[in-house]
Specification:
This protein is of the alpha/beta class and about 220 residues long. Helix content is about 35%, strand content about 15%. It is built from eight helices and six strands. Helix 6 runs parallel beside helix 7. The chain binds iron/sulfur cluster. The site of iron/sulfur cluster has 11 residues, from helix 1.
């Protein structure tokens, strides 16, 4: 029986070396060769290949070799711009959470300053009541009896699709809402801001603090479904 693939627990990480076949017994480089072959064949598509090539060049350009060592040099917002230019995109879409309207506005200004045509859509566009998807009065954030528009990432995707954007940028969509946006958007999507209401939209802080102030994140639970 093939063991479960668990790169995240790998003690060796030899896959970025010439010793790539010396990984653990469950190393996908060794035990998933057919799947890997099928995956790599997808790059035969010229469009996919070019997208991947430019993404790797973007990765390369993320560092500068200084006398004191290799140093990262671009904030993500700059990288999004650089990548969009590499791909020759002119029209960009922003799908943002209403709670990050200010950030979306600043991003729009930055992108417009850099020459892009920018279309942005708020998650509440359409103003469809939450009852439409079965949300109860008790499940409303502002409390029972209030009007709340549902977040509709599908609406955001369809509007941006209808505008013919070439590249989408997600700004703070909720967990799950972002998944639907990825599913329904036609143009490729990148994430500029991953919502984290506690850690200032830097979810990695939860991981960094899981051994100290947020140790509770490590508690053991059983799935009861
Ligand atoms: S691909 Fe193999 S060597 Fe690389 S992290 Fe996964 S298990 Fe480790």
């Amino acid at each position: 029986m093939i063991e479960k693939i668990e790169c995240a627990k790998c003690p060796k990480v030899v896959c970025d070396s010439e010793q790539s076949l010396k990984g653990p017994s469950n190393c996908p480089t060794k035990v998933k060769s057919e799947v890997i072959k099928r995956a790599i064949a997808k790059y035969d598509n010229a469009e996919v290949r070019e997208f991947a090539r430019q993404a790797s060049i973007q990765e390369f350009e993320g560092y500068i070799n200084l006398p004191e060592g290799r140093t990262p040099r671009n904030p993500r917002v700059e990288e999004v711009i650089q990548f969009a230019k590499k791909m020759g995109y002119k029209k960009l879409g922003i799908a943002f959470c209403s709670g990050l309207k200010d950030e979306a506005e600043i991003l729009t200004r930055i992108l417009e300053n850099r020459g892009f045509d920018v279309v942005s859509v708020c998650c509440k566009a359409g103003a469809i009541p939450k009852e439409t998807i079965g949300i109860t009065e008790e499940q409303k954030i502002r409390g029972p009896g209030s009007f709340e528009s549902m977040c509709s990432p599908i609406t955001q995707a369809e509007i941006l699709n209808s505008e013919g954007v070439e590249f989408n940028i997600v700004v703070g969509l909720c967990v799950g809402h972002d998944s639907l946006f990825f599913k329904y958007a036609h143009a490729p999507v990148t994430v500029l801001v991953a919502k984290d209401r506690v850690f200032g939209h830097n979810p990695a802080v939860g991981l960094y603090q899981s051994g100290s102030y947020y140790r509770k994140l490590m508690r053991k639970e059983l799935l009861d479904y």
